[in-house]
Design brief:
Strand content: 25-35%
Order of helices and strands: EEEEEHH
Helix content: 10-25%
Number of helices: 2
Shape: elongated
Oligomer: single chain
Number of strands: 5
Structural class: alpha+beta
Radius of gyration: 22 Å
Length: 105
């Protein structure tokens, strides 16, 4: 089932997570470098596609077996990201303002 993201209008596909049972948005094509979701070809009578979100050893085994892995669209959607995010390796170290002390006379 091919659809479009309502935020960025990019083509996506829907699947149902086998762990939580929630519907998840996936990028349309597998990405061998960043993918961590394995689609299953099991469809129920309603035509629902199921997917496993892989972690740890399961993810390493899937990469070693060269299985097609998909990326969660929430990781790649550019519509809700800040326009100029601060890189994670940069730390902003601003001087702190002195607390104002009120003195009564």
């Amino acid at each position: 089932m091919v659809a479009r993201c309502r935020d960025c209008r990019q083509e996506i596909t829907w699947a149902t997570s086998t762990g939580s049972g929630k519907r998840i948005r996936l990028d349309l094509y597998p990405d061998p470098g960043a993918g961590r979701v394995r689609k299953r070809d099991v469809r129920d009578e309603d035509g629902v596609i199921y997917a496993d979100i892989l972690r740890g050893d399961d993810l390493h085994r899937a990469i070693a077996d060269q299985q097609p892995l998909y990326v969660l669209h929430s990781d790649t959607c550019h519509a809700r990201r800040p326009p100029n995010p601060r890189p994670p390796h940069i730390r902003i170290d601003l001087p702190r303002r002195a607390k104002r002390q009120w003195r009564y006379r």
